[in-house]
Fold this protein.
Amino acid sequence: MGDAARRAAERAARDSYGRLLAFLAARTRDVAGAEDALAEAFASALASWPEQGVPANPDAWLLTVARRRQTDAIRRRHTRKTGEAHIQLMTEELEAAGAHPDAIPDRRLALMFACAHPEIEAGMRAPLILQTILGLTAIDIAAAFLIPPATMGQRLVRAKARIREAGIPFAIPEREDLAIRLDAVLDAIYAAYAKGWTEIGDTAAERLADEAIWLGRLVVSLLPDEPEAKGMLALMLYAEARRQARRDAGGAYVPLEQQDITLWDEEQIVAAEALLHAANQAGPTGRYQIEAAIQSAHVARRVTSRPNWDAVVALYDVLLDLTHSPVALLNRAVALAETEGPEAALASLDAIAGDRRMADYQPYWAARGHLCARAGRKEEAHEALTLAIGLSTDEAVRHYLIGQRAALQDG
Amino acid sequence: MRYMMIIHHDDEAMAKAPPQELWAEYAAFNQALNKAGEGFSGGLRLSPSKEGTIVRTSAGKTDVLDGPYADTREQLAGYFFIDVPDIEQAVEWANRCPSSKYGAIEIRPIVEQTAR
């Protein structure tokens, strides 16, 4: 059995799992109960489909196993009277759905909105979506998010209980709330992608990036009219296209400007450009579209041999207006150094120099170190690079910075 | 939440570590740690565990013994303190500590004395 076949089978199992879980949970608002009902069926699917192939009707296959489980679970848990009514209703619904599997409504989007509801702690939204929509285990999610497995397990249990206790609706928000609520869903998916992007050489993290892109595609397919969803998917694809170029043959860190463009994945860039173009039909409106446009200006180097720095600075101005984020200001400064020189860039950083959040923010000190070095302020550069080295968690980045700091003495 | 970050070194891995590089990385790490704010502080480096002494009093009798407290490959080598909102950031600080490559960092929340 090839790897591709296994992945296809797993994909089909996850696709069915998420749809069925959303269907069951939307009915009962009991995510944990629905998971219990599907767990055994999903585990058998993951074990047998890669060997025996994906069944003609994956949903019906899973439902056949799950239906019995769900009924048993409800029978055990509830008092006789309400329990039986519940069982009957569920069995009827599931039977109707099982007879016409095409009729199973896709409530995954509603489930994602529930997982990213304001009542759910922001940091738990991504793990919750990964678990409910994709069926990832708490252990796998914990490994990707670098959290102790027991802690992740407890937090997931609490978040699911919260959905029920707070009466969080399984619904796609009304038009006026849609943009804000969708942002929360997109932020959660992007957080999962960002985790998968920063941890290099870690298979758990790399898989997470794949899953996030898949979720991004799902949201785009379920909400085809939302430009921000397309913007976020484009942003992930631009980043993903450069994955191979981020390290050289010896595993050393390669900064964006020095990456070998022949290692960029042209297919993913083309897909990202098309998505961004479609998203921007009515003019860029949100954070993800602007960030994707910045990526587009960077990869313009494929054709023009130089990134479009004026466009990058202008886009960061828009982003800064929109988000007032110190990170946007920091990135803008790096681009500004290319158009107006390092002193102008450093002066622009004064606005966030006293920000408490920057004290242990590694990219701030790395950027500051590079800018000071370019401005010939060696002592300041040395200090900033030293802090950046001390704050690095990635070995390749740490080595790169140590090299930069050593170069200060030679230059 | 305040955490004590306990550094355990793997003797074998430590013996192979390039000392100059390691201490340069430690200098940077300590500088970052001390600049991170109140509640963060570098601890002291401990001598190898075989130079330790173990004292135990039981039923009025005091035993004094040589050497490491526990005979495992990984031994207590040092510690530092951090004050961060969450276990995520604590893991990040553990990751930044150069010793994480040559052993393990144990993260222990410090029990806060609360007035009740």
Remarks:
- Chain A touches chain B at residues 123, 145-148, 151, 356, 359-360, 386-387, 389-393, 395, 398, 402 (CB under 8 Å).
- The CA atoms of residues 333 and 345 of chain A lie 5 Å apart.
